[in-house]
Amino acid sequence: MSQTAKYLKDYRAPDYRIPEIRLRFDIHHDHTLVTAEYAVEPQSGAGDLRLHGSAELVGLMVNGRMLPETEYRLENEMLVVHRAPAQPFTFSVQTKLFPHQNTTLMGLYQSGGNLYTQCEPEGFRKITFHPDRPDVMSVYTTEIHADKARFPVLLANGNRIDGGDLPEGRHFAVWHDPFAKPSYLFALVAGDLACTRDRFTAADGREIALEFYTRAEDQSQVGFAIESLKHAMRWDETRFGLVYDLDIYMVVAVGDFNMGAMENKGLNIFNTKYVLADARTATDDDFDGVESVIAHEYFHNWTGNRVTCRDWFQLSLKEGLTVFRDQEFSADRSSRAVRRIRNTALLRRHQFPEDAGPMAHPVRPASYVEMNNFYTMTVYEKGAEVVRMYHTLLGEEGFQKGMKLYFQRHDGQAVTCDDFRAAMADANGIDLAQFALWYSQAGTPVLDVSGSLNGQGAYVLRIKQSIPPTPDMHDKQPMMMPVKIGLLDDTGAAVAFSLPNSGESVTEAVLLLTESEQEFVLEGVNVNVTPSLLRGFSAPVRLNFPYSDAQLALLLAHDSDPFARWEAGQTLFRRAVAANEQALTRQQDLPAHDALFDALAHVIRAEIDPALKAELLTVPAEEELWGSENIHPLNVHHAREALLNALAVRFQDDILAVNLQAKSAEENAAVPNPYDYYPEQAEWRTLRNVCRSLLLRANPQEQMEYVFEHYDEMAKNMTHEWGLLAAVNHVDDPRRDALLARFAEKFGEHALVLDKYFALIAGSRRDDTPAQVQAALQHPAFAPTNPNKVRALIGTFARNNRHFHAENGAGYRFVAEKVRETDALNPQTAAVLARTAFSVCQRLEPQRRALMTAELQQLAAWDALSKDTREIVEKILAG
Ligand code: B3K
Ligand code: ZN
């Protein structure tokens, strides 16, 4: 049962422009009536007007005349008005919605008694009939009528221009957004919400009202998000010269939401997870997430809203660029080096497998069945890497010139990734034609590098690039990419070199790779060197170089580039896990890992940034250690666990010392309250939590007992609580259960903390985890309609390799069943779950592959499966 795909190559400009839209929402207790009125401008004469829509149609008019059923037809969620006028006309349509029955959380839906919208990418058509494509941009005026007691707050995009009381206890508000926008940026909120107000003085002197809407009981947790917004607004002014354009900026927090947040013009709607934070209930990572998501959505105001996408294939135009911008914002706020490492780790853990699996697609996909399935790590994170490469190639100044030209040319338009690339090229007078391949070729490029002294005072690097075939494409062209490098001598000191015809002696250079095989001559090198390659992860590729363990240890100990340093350690870790795996399958003794452990001894004792130390001590995730085929997840799991256990035992005393150092650094910091969130405090706590989990491995019973006895005095804030519970979570001991139960009780009123409880249950390596997950499904706080809960419990379980990949297939069966149940309520959440869990199918060893395939086939055979989940399941089955 294959589905119809849309193709980038079929793009055609719209036949109708709609410069103006007036919407009226009449909210009643069990339904909402929506009247939409469009000023329509035909672009190619008379013809059929085709509008998407799935809402109940009440009636429609053209130029004020009710259309009889003979003049239009409604089929497959498409309204076709026969022979629409050739001259500009007004079109109005009335629809009836039932938001309380809408569990998809797209379109207009109800959550906690309030109404919210989510339109990106194609939710507007669930509200009314409309072309619902991003290149149809309109100025919106939105009028909302509702019962005043139940819906005291009525919000929509733009500025509030009117409002007042109506008979029968009702009231109304009118909002006008002067900036033309696509339908996906439309938003409306109606309900009983508390408003926290602040203000921001923009660089041009305008006063901007900031309004954050939450449940009244959550108001005390909104302060950090407001401060984050102000930081983001100031940063965009200083680094990019971009100033906010409306008089008001609103953020609304909602507990039922499909993703993190949504950048609707002037009226962002957020998952509570990315707005609410205080030290008692949020970890440092949560605070960091709030700051970066608040910033991300704010940055969209220019990169996404003022300049938007021509079609959904161009999604990365706004997402890749905006992720790059939020990454830079966070890096400018604190810990640039560590953030780069974390971004890279995220990409490798989640995007590399995507690029090597059944869902592989280029940064600009060439086709899709359900657009919601393409909000992927590739579009977002690899897209951000592509933008970062422009930045590396052009430098900050050249990149900013490109951004300036991009806004000069395209403000108010809906454009393509090619337009962005052209702005970068033209502003800098360079040719970026070859760079376009990053948008059309999927798959992670592989660089095979070798190097040697040429006996004539030069070190020669030879780089071969290849791009693996993906389901959509076999033969690929070499791409253009920056490769940042340096050289170290045998003591770890930097070695100077010069590039041919430059004469300038440097210790670092960006090589421009454009061919499938290329040689780079680094002159003036007469000593034995170790190359430091792909510094700063200058391109999103896999790089192979035949390093000896000793060379990796040298890089890990001495490289001046923190990324390259970390990467050397990661390679040593990967080698060690692979060696363990081999020993375990052959039932031999585990290897000693001398080179790795000697290098780690340096790391643990080094006086370096605590967060960097934490990263250097982190073994790559299991997903990163999986090969391209015949994966035995449990073998990898046991091999990695064995390495961690050995490391924990070997360095027990050092780790204790570091833990104490981190504790006193945290407690003695010169801040008003050391347990509040400050980036520097957070770094120490990150390191502490790494130590805690290692200490627990080395001595589970003793640590368990200690934590159990001293939990309350150790748990100074949620970061501590999380660190303690995450450490003891795997111990088969009733005290662990008691601690978790107390935790759930203590935070019984905090939905976001209960998500942590569910994640702990589902993430445990204990044997009884499947049974505990079953029990958690019955917990009063678990709700299959709430995406945060589904992700916390089922999503976490699907990443718990030890149990999800159980040999008897029980893990697969359980998750498939939950995918099916979730799909009936919320296709988007189900599809994400299916993709996370099952994309690995064809790479598994034959037995598990067969078990997983059987579950997927059963899902595919289910007629009612949504288009969303079906696209994922069928692509996985097709391999
Ligand atoms: N643009 C939204 C994502 C919409 C996802 C729709 N499935 C949030 C963001 O990336 O900023
Ligand atoms: Zn975004």
Polypeptide structure, described:
This protein has 879 residues and is α+β, with helices and mostly antiparallel strands. Among the domains are: 20-192, tricorn interacting facor f3 domain (Immunoglobulin-like, Sandwich), CATH 2.60.40; 446-536, Aminopeptidase N, middle-beta domain (Immunoglobulin-like, Sandwich); 545-698, Peptidase M1, alanyl aminopeptidase, C-terminal domain (Zincin-like fold, Alpha Horseshoe); 748-878, Peptidase M1, alanyl aminopeptidase, C-terminal domain (Zincin-like fold). An eight-stranded mixed β-sheet has the order 6-5-9-3-2-12-15-14, with no helix packed on it. It has a five-stranded mixed β-sheet with strand order 17-18-19-21-20, with helices on one face. A four-stranded antiparallel β-sheet has the order 10-11-16-13, with no helix packed on it. Helix 2 packs across helix 3 and helix 19 packs parallel to helix 21. The radius of gyration is 28 Å and the shape is globular. It binds (3S)-3,7-diaminoheptanoic acid (B3K) and zinc ion.
Brief summary:
With 879 residues, the chain is an alpha+beta fold. The protein is 42% helix and 22% strand.
CATH topology of the domain at 20-192, what is it called?
Immunoglobulin-like
- The strand count comes to 31
What structural category arises from helix and sheet content?
alpha+beta
Q: Name the CATH architecture of the domain at 20-192.
A: Sandwich
Q: Kindly report how far apart the N and C termini lie.
A: 16 Å
Order of strands across the main sheet: 6-5-9-3-2-12-15-14
Poorly predicted runs are none
Helical residues, percent: 40-55%
Q: What's the pLDDT, averaged over the residues?
A: 97
Q: Please, what is the oligomeric state?
A: single chain
What is the radius of gyration computed over CA atoms, rounded to a whole number of angstroms?
A: 28 Å
* Largest sheet: number of strands, sense, barrel closure: 8 strands, mixed
The CATH superfamily of the domain at 20-192 is tricorn interacting facor f3 domain
Beta-strand level of the residues, as a percent range?
15-25%
Query: Please, how many helices?
Result: 26
Bound molecules: (3S)-3,7-diaminoheptanoic acid, zinc ion
EC number: 3.4.11.2
Domain Peptidase M1 alanyl aminopeptidase Ig-like fold: 443-544
Domain Aminopeptidase N-like N-terminal: 88-185
Cofactor: Zn(2+)
